[in-house]
Amino acid sequence: MRLLFVHDDREYLLAPGEEFGTDLGVIEVPEDVAPGDTVETHLGTEFVAREPRGPDLFDHFERTGAPMMPRDIGLVVGHTGASRGDRVLDAGTGTGVLAAYLGRVGCAVTTYERDPDFADVARENMALAGVEPTVEVRTGDLTDDLDSLVADDDGFDLLTLDTEDAPAAVRRAPDLLVSGGFVAVYSPFVEGTRAAHEAAREAGLGEVETFETIQRRMDFGERGSRPSTAGVGHTGYLTFARN
């Protein structure tokens, strides 16, 4: 498994035995390196090894588009109670950040990505995150497989959607989910959010709620403390519903 090597604001994700050149010197990673170890470059600069966590993977995954932000993923996990042993059906894999986070908390994830190239990148990212045994990346459109997935007797604990056709899957949620299972739909646009919200109500799902995600960084200075004026902190909209 790769580790994160950190010096001040520099960080590199490297594998045991790997050699990597920087302007601070060449890092030669020992085969037996462990989190907490210090590795010196040939110029004497010390890097500390850390086990990468979710936010680190978010920064180092190869991206195929704008991934879901950690703040949104936190809301998904918090509102649905996603936990070890849950079966998750996901659509719109993209970079795979959400699927990786869910895999790292112990969920068994089946995720669909339409673009074959994006799916290949997502599989590489799952290997980087160390979750490839529990996260299956399928190439294709979830809506094409809904009938076969509905026939699965076990059902899913959580349905997560980040696709334009999310309402079509939401309408089938009562047949896809176990009793008490959740739907979580992410959309960057109000129109898609409203369509998903209405689809959830039409399907007879309960506890239907929609939130806008806004996060503001705090600035602390000599004159006083206030929210940062850099940007509005908006990422998107999340709709939740329960079977």
Automatic annotation (TrEMBL):
GO molecular function: tRNA (adenine(58)-N1)-methyltransferase activity
Alphabetized CDD domains for the sequence: AdoMet_MTases
Domain tRNA (adenine(58)-N(1))-methyltransferase catalytic subunit TRM61 C-terminal residues, every copy: 71-219
Gene Ontology BP, a term: tRNA methylation
Keywords assigned by UniProt, alphabetized: Methyltransferase, S-adenosyl-L-methionine, Transferase, tRNA processing
GO cellular component, one term: tRNA (m1A) methyltransferase complex
Gene3D superfamilies (UniProt xref): Vaccinia Virus protein VP39
InterPro entries linked: SAM-dependent_MTases_sf, TRM61_C, tRNA_MeTrfase_Gcd14
Pfam family, one: GCD14
Protein name per UniProt: SAM-dependent methyltransferase
Organism, as annotated: Salinigranum rubrum
Organism ancestry: Archaea, Methanobacteriati, Methanobacteriota, Stenosarchaea group, Halobacteria
